Amino acid sequence: MQISGQCAIVTGGASGLGAEVCRELASQGARVTVLDVNLELALGVAKEINAHAARCDVTSSADIEAALASARGVHGPARILVNCAGIGGAKRLVGKNGPMPLEDFTRIINVNLVGTFNVMRLAAPDMLAAEPLEDGERGVMINTTSVAAFDGQVGQAAYAASKGGIASLTLPLARDLAQFGVRVVAIAPGLFLTPLLRELPQEVQDSLGASIPFPKRLGKPSEFARLAAHIVTNLSLNGEVIRLDGALRLPPR
Description:
Blueprint: E1 7-11, H1 16-27, E2 31-36, H2 39-49, E3 52-55, H3 61-75, E4 80-83, E5 94-95, E6 98-99, H4 102-129, E7 139-144, H5 148-151, H6 157-178, E8 182-189, H7 195-198, H8 202-210, H9 221-233, E9 241-244
Parallel strand pairs: 1-2, 1-4, 2-3, 4-7, 7-8, 8-9
Antiparallel strand pairs: 5-6
Helix pairs in contact: 1-2, 1-9, 3-4, 4-6
């Protein structure tokens, strides 16, 4: 699929990896809609790249339906969906104050895993109804998992489970949608210089970067965005989880 002229929707598009994906797709001529729970930040990114923005809580079906309708009204049906919305959190199963509160686990699962699936299921009908392109493709969905899906650290039970679920969605949904010409691919980033990591002291950032075999630095959001764009254009990438981590394997702690 050629990116230019296509409608693209990016969840979590107001900051970090999502914002960089919005910039990359827009630079290649996509008609981008920035979706985020923080509408003010989403509007800022949209203004920067001449895109559309809408508020969207991915755990709310009503929010997603309204945001997709807004995007459709401005740009038409989307053929490109990139899910970057997600949250983190670290707690041991049993801490100083007793067992991990169940709501701490379910909140991360609901945003990261259920939220990703929720957007996919509601965005899919537009793709399935689209006229096939010359190569038979109708759309592509790119999800964001994490190396924590495979190398989860102490305290990452909820986060790793949520990202592992996203990784496991990839093949069955790619098989499910193959008959319609819709691809499903996931990216599993390692340690990237997102706003969350920028808040850490420089010496901590340097130490994290040094733990990566090569390149010995934190990943750049632009590298994630370029991979997402490549996936859109490479028809043979389907049903795969791609690690983008500089050969990093997370230690237990």
